[in-house]
Prior knowledge:
The longest helix has about 50 residues, at about 320-370. It is globular and about 55 Å long. It starts with a helix and ends in a 6-residue tail after the last helix. The protein has helices at about 1-15, 20-25, 30-50, 60-80, 85-100, 100-110, 115-145, 150-170, 180-195, 195-225, 230-245, 250-260, 260-280, 285-310, 320-370. By secondary structure, it is mainly alpha-helical. Helix 1 packs antiparallel against helix 5 (about 85-100) and helix 3 packs across helix 15 (about 320-370).
Amino acid sequence: MAISVGVIVANIYYVQPLLAAVAREFHLTVAGAGAIAMLMQVGTALGMLFFVPLGDTHERRALVTRLVLASSLALALFALAPNVWWLGAAGVVVGALGATVHVIVPFAAHLAPEQQRGRVLGFVFSGLLFGILLARAFSGFVGAHLGWRAVFWIASAMMLAVAALLRTQLPRSEPEVDLSWTQLVRSAAGLVRRHYTLREASLQGALFFAGFSAFWTTLAFRLETPPFHYGSTVAGLFGLVGAAGAAGAPIVGHCADKRGPRVAVLLALIVAMIAFLVMGFAGATIMGLVVGVVILDLAVQSGHVANQTRIYALDAGARSRINMVYMVCYFVGGALGSYVGALAWHAAGWWGVCGLGLAAMLPGMALVLRREPPA
């Protein structure tokens, strides 16, 4: 499961190191290129809304296999894009089908023993974050040598292989409720009203991913400017650097099991703020960026795993809907972070991006420091 979610989620992030190349081909501004990344994450939020709740009412293995096959087609359409409008529309569909991983994640939580759920989710989310980060390294390298379109042709072929793997390796998972999609969404709204923990975790997740996306959307442009003058290969290699942070996810999951996930969220917020300060003050050096990336990715992964541990403990029969609420908020935050991060870069340069990341962590800190009401 960890490998599958990593390969599937990578589809949403291949474009980030390639934004400068895409901008040149389609004559886009930095904000216009940021809008392409934003549209993919908007698509993912829509996918969370339309596809993820179906995990509670459809046999999951068949559902996931169909979605992955559709993803292969969407990636091919993205690679074929003759103009920016086609590119944006295909990006929305690619993003929406990237939500497939969040049909798989509640399945993993369902299979895991309760006392090990945090650790299991940590391993699954390590796969997810490795996919996000290694996607950038892969696309940066391939894009520099074969062009950005080749990245998406290769990704389309990989989805066919993943579909075959999931079909043969995943067990059947029968639905637990019998509701229409409309009833599912209405019941999800009831879950939001009922559970304070879900509301708090969803807002914190959105803030984490807003800061994370603002950084990764603008990194390729930062590396093209003095004193660096680097292309997509180096921008992508930062994904390998960030993978060191992803390795901490199982440890964080274990901490959430032992000390409580709220403590893990607080530590993650503090570490994320340190990361943006490091990249702000030392961001004119490669070492400063490297250290900042490792710290930031560890922080975001830590907060994500801890928040998921919290929400999956709320209602075992509604995990797909609970995950839908959390991940819709998460990717709406990411979409806003991508676009506002591009605007911050245009308005105030690198410190504008780092300042935006710091500001995004502050409301999350206020939430976690207040006294927690009943779940």
